[in-house]
Amino acid sequence: MDTKWIEISKEHIDKEVLKEAGDIIKKGGLVAFPTETVYGLGGDALNPRSSQKIYEAKGRPSDNPLIVHIARLEDLPQIVSYIPESAKVLAEHFWPGPLTMIFQKSDIVPHETTGGLETVAVRFPSDVVAQEFIKEAGGFVAAPSANTSGRPSPTSGRHVYEDMQGKIEMILDGGSCEIGLESTIVDLTEEIPVILRPGYITEEMLESVLNKVNVDRTILSAASGIAPKAPGMKYRHYAPKGELVIVKGKSGKVVSYVNDKLREGHAQGRKMGVIATDETIDQYDACVRKSVGRRTDEASIARRLYEILREFDREDVEDIYAEAFDCSGMGQAIMNRLLKAAGHKIIEIS
Ligand code: TXA
Ligand code: MG
Predict the structure, then answer these.
(1) Is residue 2 classed exposed, middle or buried when 0-12, 13-18 and 19+ CB atoms within 10 A define those classes?
(2) Were both Cys, which of 50, 162, 203, 240 would link to 309 (CB 3.0–4.6 Å)?
(3) What is the tens place of the pLDDT at every residue in 12-67?
(4) Residue 15 falls within a domain, yes or no?
(5) Is 261 found in the same domain as 179?
(6) Which helix (H) or strand (E) holds 256?
(7) Shortest-distance Cα residue to atom 19 of ligand 1
(8) Is residue 209 part of a domain?
(9) Number of domains in the chain
(10) Domain limits at 273?
(11) Radius of gyration (Cα) for the chain, nearest Å?
C-alpha cells in the first residue's frame, strides 16, 4: 500500500485534506494523526474490522484495548453507559486535553475496539488538527500510539513514517507533539478513581479537583506478579533496540559508575550511549551522549525522551545508560516510561 504523507499546519488547517482523511476512516481505512501527546493510529472506533486492522498494522496483541477519541463532549453519552460525577468534574477541568478516562461501554462500541472488555477508554484531545480530523471521520476514532508495538511512541511525522509506511493509507504530519508522552489514564469505573498510567495531568492535579485518587501499584514497580489494570502497561514498551539500564544515586557516583561501564564496553568493542541532562552531560566520557534538557525542566525532558530513544536506534547503539529522574509531578510519568523502556533494569548506587 502507498502511504500518503501530508504536512498540515495548525494555523491554516487544510479542510480538504482533513475531509479526505475522514473519508478514509469512514471507509474502514487507517490514518495517523497528531495529538498534543503522541501521534495516534486512527481507525473507525465503531467498526470492528478497522480495529482489527489497527492491531495488524502495529503488530499489537488484540487483547490490548484502544482509546476512543472524541471531539465533542456531547458525543460521550453515545459510547458509554454511565457517566459518574467524578468524570464530569475531570472533563470540566482537563478536557480537551491529555487525559483518558475509562467508563463502562455502551453497546455500539465493539469488543474488537475494547480488547474484549466491557469498559472503554475515552479521550478528547486538545490538538486542533486532531479535533477537526475526528469530526470529519464521524466523531469516534480508535487510536493507539502510531508506533510498531514495543517501539517508542512517535512524537513526529517522521517517527510515524519509520514505523507505518506501507501499512496505512495516510499520515497527517502536524510537526512535533507538544507534550511528548502519552495521556494520563484514570479508571472511573471504581468507587475511587485510579490512575492506571501517569502523564502530563499529574496525581496532584487530579487530587486538586477530586477528593481522592488511587494509583495503580504497578506504575513504578517491576511486575511483582501483579497485573496492571491497563492491559497495555504489562508489555515491554517504549523500548530502544539497545540494552537500556537506569542508574540512580548521587550525581557524582552515577557519573563515575557509568564511566567505568563505558570503559568496559568500549574495551569489548561495543557501541555505548548515555542519556543525561544538561547539568551532567559533559562529565561522561566520549560515547553517544544525549541530553534530554535541564533537570528542572520536566516538560522538555518529556518532549525529548522518545526522540532520543529513536536516535539511539538510528545510530545502532548497543548499550545505553540513563540517569534517573525525580519522581514527583510529571517526573512520575517520565520515570514510568523510562523504566518500561529499560525493562525495569535499574541500578541503585548508595
Ligand atoms: O496520549 C495517548 O493516550 C495516545 C494518543 C494517541 O491519544 N494514545 C495511546 O494509546 O497512548 P495506546 O493504545 O498506546 O495506550 C492505551 C493504553 C493501553 O495501555 C491500554 O491497555 C489502556 O490504554 N486501555 C485502553 N482501554 C482500556 C480499558 N478499557 N481499561 C484499561 N486500560 C485500557
Ligand atoms: Mg502505545
Answers:
(1) exposed
(2) 240
(3) 999 999 999 999 999 999 999 999 999 999 999 999 999 999 999 999 888 889 99
(4) yes
(5) no
(6) helix 251-267
(7) 232
(8) no
(9) 2
(10) 243-349
(11) 20
